[in-house]
Automatic annotation (TrEMBL):
Organism per entry: Agitococcus lubricus
UniProt xrefs under InterPro entries: BFD-associated_ferredoxin (IPR052371), BFD-like_2Fe2S-bd_dom (IPR007419), BFD-like_2Fe2S-bd_dom_sf (IPR041854)
Keywords annotated in UniProt: 2Fe-2S, Electron transport, Iron, Iron-sulfur, Metal-binding, Transport
Organism taxonomic ancestry: Bacteria, Pseudomonadati, Pseudomonadota, Gammaproteobacteria, Moraxellales
Cofactor(s) recorded in Swiss-Prot or TrEMBL: [2Fe-2S] cluster
Protein's recorded name: Bacterioferritin-associated ferredoxin
């Protein structure tokens, strides 16, 4: 699905950018140009970045 219509950036591209090492909105923006025209995609882009970072985080178990 397109997240940034202005630059034709999809949710998959954003996830791939995070998987490739982008760890912040600024890094994704610099890589894919999301949010640099109208800005309507910024909230969804941030949500996708955070969700992807959570998915990639190592799962730790809490020991009592």
């Amino acid at each position: 699905m397109f997240v940034c219509v202005c630059h034709a950036v999809t949710d998959k591209q954003i996830k791939q950018a995070v998987e490739a090492g982008c760890c912040s909105y600024r890094e994704v923006r610099d890589c894919l140009q999301t949010g640099t025209t109208c800005g309507r995609c910024v909230p969804e882009t941030r949500e996708l970045i955070n969700a992807t970072l959570i998915e990639l985080a190592p799962h730790t178990s809490q020991a009592a």
